[in-house]
Design a protein that fits this description.
Structural class: mainly alpha
Shape: elongated
Oligomer: single chain
CATH superfamily of the domain at 212-397: Tetratricopeptide repeat domain
Order of helices and strands: HHHHHHHHHHHHHHHHHHHHHHHHHHHHHH
Number of helices: 30
Mean pLDDT: 80
CATH topology of the domain at 212-397: Serine Threonine Protein Phosphatase 5, Tetratricopeptide repeat
Length: about 600
């Protein structure tokens, strides 16, 4: 199979010390089969940093929890607690020094040929025979014709299993403007408000014989993110090729990756002095301007780039992201369409579509674009964020958890991502995790105020009623029309025995209801509150009103509770309260409040 051949090529490249080539092959293999444990383990051998090795081995272990290689690697990297059940790596050859330590009676008895050769007389006879054989071969060699040169066939000796020292270029991302960038060209990514890394130029400029060796060194420095060495080598190339506009352009990119955006401006301008119609340099100027001033208007530079080369796809992509940063998806979408025509296999273009459709609340298209971006390039970190966000917009909360967890492993300071993950935990019943995650998100970013709704729900389900009341009140302060927050406070009052407050809050909740499902839930809690405060006639009226509504607007539990309470209220006995009552997140399908801070 083609995959087997490619995999063997990757293994051979690793054995020859060519990690970059091995990584490139394994990345392609993983795009086709992300659940292949063997690929992930060997991928960990081709990367450079411990963080990437840990990620690969953790992924392999999640796919195969009993994989000994992954466990041993993670233990040696300090990412997994030592376990006596996990055996050390086996030695592939005997240790000769151990035999020398054995006493005579401890050594195994020799048998067969080995025993015979231990006899001195036998060895003497063997030497005589060997001398005779060598003489015969020598005579034969002198008399034989020399028309068949010696050929050494290439061998493929299987080596030991890969160890923890193995990497996928996983998640490389561009930090905030002004900080050094630490990633190479193989994984292009972007975070909000930051420019994209340039893709390879449409024309691959041939290097002169004088600069070829220097350029190879520069390329190696680029791949290991050694920007100072790259700039130094490219300056040498520039002296050998003073008419090549791409050389100062790439120098500008390196300065931008370092966060030295003013030096980048000078380099991009130097490229334009060589060739005024060099479109990438105009895009570079726009990126450097935004790096220095995120609010800069760079539309004129995009126009110049398109005028110079209308086929350069990066221009349309950058301009689309310029509009997305200004929350204008309608302006961004036409540019994304053109960018897709120029760069049909670009994950970053699909990421732009995902952002635009999320802003337009087009759940289906946002999810499709986010999934496609992640399929094209699994190494782009932001694709995991937008994939999780798109899943949540589609109310697929369980599916949202894994990509958001992956994103936060490598971007642990993003309060907005914690808010999304906490919401997914709350919606799937993992209330303790939701509580911890939402609290951490608010600590990192207090503007994530929608978290108070789900923090309140989690505390309510964990029976932390004091905290739940505080959280719901904060949520209502920021989102007064939130049905989930209002009905959550109603339920908190009821569970706390404050039936009068619960009744009043149920009335408020009913006024915030946007559909019959929400109205049914408000009537349900109003009926329970009326019963709790002794207004039996009003409670009966509300329970009957609830039962008159269509069955599909409430849970079976709500309908059964209403019937049971009506039966009990028809007798002079004390009316029971429900032991398990619906919570807002289960009985409703409401639109959750939109975060005040958007990526």
């Amino acid at each position: 199979m083609a995959e087997d051949t490619m995999f063997q090529d990757a293994v051979d490249a690793l054995r020859q010390g060519d990690k970059a080539h091995a990584k490139e092959i394994l990345t392609r293999l993983l795009k086709a089969d992300q659940s292949n444990v063997t690929y992930w383990i060997w991928m960990s051998a081709s990367v450079e940093t411990p963080k990437e090795r840990i990620y690969c081995l953790q992924t392999a272990l999640s796919l195969d929890p009993e994989n000994g290689i992954a466990k041993r690697g993670l233990i040696l990297l300090g990412a997994l607690a030592p376990d006596e059940k996990v055996q050390p790596f086996p030695l592939n050859r005997p240790r000769a020094w151990e035999e020398k330590l054995l006493l005579a009676h401890e050594k195994p008895k020799q048998k067969g040929l080995r025993a015979a050769m231990s006899n001195p007389l036998t060895r003497l006879a063997g030497v005589a025979l060997l001398v005779t054989a060598v003489g015969a071969v020598a005579v034969f060699g002198l008399l034989s014709p020399r028309n068949n040169p010696l050929r050494i066939g290439s061998t493929n000796t299987p080596g030991p299993s890969p160890t923890f020292t193995l990497t996928p270029t996983f998640v490389n991302f561009t930090p905030q403007a002004g900080t050094p960038v630490k990633f190479g060209p193989t994984s292009l990514s972007v975070l909000f408000g930051v420019s994209y890394t340039a893709t390879p130029l449409p024309v691959n400029t041939p290097r002169s014989p004088v600069s070829q060796d220097i350029y190879r060194g520069a390329k190696a420095a680029y791949e290991r993110s050694d920007w100072d060495a790259f700039i130094s080598d490219m300056n040498e190339v520039a002296r050998a090729e003073p008419t090549s506009a791409d050389v100062p352009f790439y120098i500008g990119e390196a300065y931008r990756f370092k966060g030295e955006c003013r030096n980048a401006l000078d380099a991009y301008n130097a490229a334009l002095k060589i060739n005024i119609r060099f479109a990438p340099a105009y895009v570079g100027l726009a990126r450097a301007r935004i790096c220095i001033d995120p609010g800069a208007d760079t539309t004129a530079l995009y126009d110049l780039a398109i005028s110079a080369d209308p086929n350069y796809g990066e221009t349309y992509l950058d301009r689309a992201n310029f509009y997305l940063e200004r929350t204008d998806p309608n302006a961004a979408l036409p540019d994304l369409e053109v960018a897709q025509q120029r760069m049909p296999d670009s994950a970053l273009v699909q990421l732009g579509f995902a952002r635009a459709y999320l802003m337009k609340n087009d759940a289906a298209k946002a999810l499709a674009a986010a999934q496609k971006a992640n399929e094209i390039d699994i190494t782009i970190l932001p694709s995991y964020y937008y994939l999780g966000k798109a899943y949540e917009l589609n109310q697929q909360y369980l599916d949202a958890i894994k990509p958001l967890e992956t994103y936060l492993k490598y971007q642990p300071d993003d309060g907005g991502a914690y808010a999304l993950l906490g919401q997914a935990y709350a919606k799937t019943g993992a209330y303790k995790l939701a509580n911890e995650t939402l609290s951490k998100g608010l600590d990192l970013d207090p503007t994530q105020r929608q978290s108070y709704v789900y923090l309140g729900i989690s505390n309510l389900e964990l029976n932390n009623l004091v905290n739940a009341e505080t959280d719901f009140k904060k949520a209502i302060q920021y989102f007064p029309d939130s049905f989930d927050a209002n009905i959550g406070l109603t339920q908190t009052y009821y569970k706390n025995g404050s039936f009068g407050s619960a009744y009043l809050q149920a009335e408020t909740s009913k006024s915030k209801a946007q559909n019959d499902t929400e109205r049914a839930l408000a009537i349900y809690w109003r009926a329970l509150s009326q019963e709790g405060r002794g207004s039996i006639a009003d409670a009966i009226k509300d329970f009957k009103l609830l039962l008159s509504m269509p069955e599909n607007v409430m849970t079976p539990k709500m309908r059964q509770d209403a019937e049971d309470h009506l039966k009990n209220m028809a007798t002079p006995t004390k009316t029971p309260t429900p032991t398990s009552t619906p919570r807002p997140g289960k009985a409703t399908a409401t639109q959750t409040p939109t975060p005040t801070k958007k990526p």
